[in-house]
Amino acid sequence: MSNDLDFEGWVCPLPLRDTPTIVMGHGGGGAMSGELIEQLFLPAYGGAARAELGDSAVLSVPAGRLAFSTDSFVVKPMFFPGGSIGDLAVNGTVNDLAMAGATPLFLSTAFILAEGTALSDIGRVATALGKAAEVAGVQLVTGDTKVVDSGSGDGVFVNTAGIGVVADGVEIGPARARVGDAVIVSGDIGVHGIAVMSCREGLEFGTTVVSDTAPLHGLVAEMLATGIDVRVLRDPTRGGVAATLNEIARASGVGIELVERDLPVPAEVKDACGLLGLDPLQVANEGKLLAVVPADRAEELLAAMHRHPLGSGARRIGRCVAEHPRMVVARTGLGGTRVVDLPIGEQLPRIC
Amino acid sequence: MSNDLDFEGWVCPLPLRDTPTIVMGHGGGGAMSGELIEQLFLPAYGGAARAELGDSAVLSVPAGRLAFSTDSFVVKPMFFPGGSIGDLAVNGTVNDLAMAGATPLFLSTAFILAEGTALSDIGRVATALGKAAEVAGVQLVTGDTKVVDSGSGDGVFVNTAGIGVVADGVEIGPARARVGDAVIVSGDIGVHGIAVMSCREGLEFGTTVVSDTAPLHGLVAEMLATGIDVRVLRDPTRGGVAATLNEIARASGVGIELVERDLPVPAEVKDACGLLGLDPLQVANEGKLLAVVPADRAEELLAAMHRHPLGSGARRIGRCVAEHPRMVVARTGLGGTRVVDLPIGEQLPRIC
Questions:
Q1: What sequence ranges are listed for the domain PurM-like N-terminal (chains A, B) (predicted)?
Q2: What residues does each domain of chain B span?
């Protein structure tokens, strides 16, 4: 930013305004806060943003049911192979809405910026966020920016909240899985987590894995258009497939049995997990979904999923069983079974 | 938390679970994340929370217009005279909705917690948040929790997003002020900012000032019930009355003239501002609003405001003028005028 910033005709005389980094004043609600919105966020967001991007937005929505969701993103580093915290901030919340069967419409964006963060980095994040919103077809309608002193926060934290519309008749929920249902995954697992870990400070390892971050509501729309009773949809982010299936098993009171050889784990993910001592089932994904559907409609649903680019790798990975209710087990290649636990804590910090 | 945590029948054997503080595992999306929600957030929120508090909520709303808003809260210290970051997180977003003329209905809550933060502090914040939501009559419907390593964030950051319903015929916006309109404030100014500063590390000074944090939608409902064309409503938070009036003047293209002797500045705020070299007009408020209304209805509106506890100190402080468009001036006691600038940066960090 140069010294000739023109804020509605008023040229700032202060050398402070030459700063290439965030200073406390950007969070003060005064002229510098206004400049940050006018000169950085709005241009970076591009066509995805409402022109005013004010404290609140007034929206027209159809009568009926809305889905409402929120997520904060603290991933480190903020740029990683295949994406950035800006992409995640859109896709994470869009996908939470999609998993309720909703069509996402509106997002809020709230940034917590650490003093000293480069404005160019924030610009790159905001540009990625705007592009991801355009791709997902959601409008950025309201926002907030706070600045914290260095040492109190680092880099960029982003929160998004989203509103979507749920069509009549759509009833999706984690408690709806029934014994006999098929468990389906939309594609390769473990990719996002390994992509982020591969460039984490002190943990660099060479890999060609790039994050799978993507908005899933288009794929969900294809699935719902079949008319099949999709009982459960979830995106297996933090805690991976293991955490998500355990939650479904507990909420529905069924057992879940996976067939290990049917799990789509790319070779690079398998190798990296071996190196790091991780279970691919516990590694985070950002552009994948798990679905539980009646077994007799599973092939039909898979055919529909295969027609969508984000579902081309969809496959059946297991089924809901009456045995071991509320527990997930995997049948191993050797004919034995192992328990797939809910992870207790975290494998490695900050991947979404 | 004790060693006999019972998570759906499963007793944790790890000494880690004895921790009285946040550890990275609480943000991992696994068992510890579940425990934090089940055993801390849900009990603390009490009746204000939906039982499931999941990744997303499906809500029934009437057709028409919705207001949507978001705010992050990073106030330091997290407890201050008259409130906490938990109260602010509810009232801040409720008030952004109220300033659009909306009745607030639903809030999301997203916490970013630093490793090492005492669980008891988080419990106190969440309890205050739940109580404030009950007072404001809003439901906490969806949430998120992330943990960042110590040194990357400190204590507790909270984001809330909110949805409210805007009644037909309500048209409130910062660009609607007209020459001749009266400018009204709902009560004493500068109170919240001084209350927070009074207990800031390294800045302690004795004062009896307590934060004015409060939800304002009840007062707004009384104002709108008069049928008076309330043109602009804004809560003067960061940047204070000065920032808010400058924004209104710029958006509406009018000048605003304040009468300095009519500004309700409590003696303690005046004293503290003198000590710290601050302009009370630039100090943050959390439970006050500014209204711009047709001058011929101002007395009638003030009478309605006086009937509400949060409007008992309401008074006229100025008017919109054709002179000096897009600029705010104050007439001083000596008959002169001074320009009331949009603050450039920030007086002191983190007051909301």
A1: 55-166
A2: 6-166, 182-339
